[in-house]
Amino acid sequence: RSRKKQKLISAPFSHQDISCSTQRLSFTYPPPPTQTSLSAYL
Length: 42
Prior knowledge:
The chain has one domain (2-41). The longest helix is centred in the middle third of the chain and has 11 residues, at 15-25. The radius of gyration is 10 Å and the shape is globular. It has helices at residues 2-10, 15-25, 35-41. By secondary structure, the chain is mostly helical.
């Protein structure tokens, strides 16, 4: 699984990819679809 994570960090982030990753990682660089996720992370 680390390979997938590394690839995401290395490659440019996409809104769609970020959305999927956000749900699994619970955090994202661009503004998440729901502010609740960001609040929980902070």
